[in-house]
Amino acid sequence: MNSNSAYLELLRTFEFAYAGSRIPLPLGAQRLLALLALQKHGVYRGAAAEQLWPDCTPSRAAANLRSALCPVRRIRSVTVIDSAGQRLRLSPSVDVDLDAMRKTAQRVITGLSPLPADCDALVGELNRELLPGWPDDWLMLERERWDQARLHALESLAQQLQTAGEYLPALQTALTAIAIDPIRETAHRIIVEIHIAEGNIACALKRYHTYRELLQQELEVAPSQQMTRLVQEVIST
């Protein structure tokens, strides 16, 4: 982040900063900035008012939108929200942490070369939630998009670390992915592979059986054939 730029943080918490200093904003203004940051092509005023204040009458929602716009249309010397007719858009001059982390996730998925010497910071960044605690319905799809991106990145990183023989950070990275989505199989399968590679057969079988019991309890389904073959091959050797 440039020390003289405007910066919007949506991961872990909401924060707007300019020139390195945090600027407190009313809740309505926060929600408007978050909505525009997630809708890159902009939002019409009526649609923004409806999404942000769905329980209000159209006239009340429009008034709330005008109130939210006042403190954030321009902050100090920076234009924060551009408007063209009825369309509102977050100014390109505002950097958003989610945009940067999506690019980071894509680089991880593509393959890091060389691997970072210490993955803790990267894993910690990928573990950040999108505006945790905010109950807004318009956030649900964007949360899912971010969760899928960071899960694929964490799983890819764990696989890359395993291939490089970095078993402990690979395990910790896979466990971070499991904490985000315990049902998803990929990270569990990577952990089984890591235990097998380390010669910890009992640990591999325990992980498999724990995951199988979870699936049975939650969904009444079994692990994939790909994962089952892993443990069958170990048992048969």
TrEMBL record:
SUPFAM superfamilies: TPR-like
One Pfam family, short name: BTAD
SMART domains with a match to the protein in the record: BTAD
The keyword Oxidoreductase is annotated on this UniProt entry: no
Superkingdom assignment: Bacteria
Protein keywords: Two-component regulatory system
Keyword rRNA-binding (UniProt): no
Bacterial transcriptional activator domain mapped to chain residues: 96-235
PANTHER family, A to Z: TRANSCRIPTIONAL ACTIVATOR DOMAIN (PTHR35807:SF2), TRANSCRIPTIONAL REGULATOR REDD-RELATED (PTHR35807)
Protein name from the UniProt record: Bacterial transcriptional activator domain-containing protein
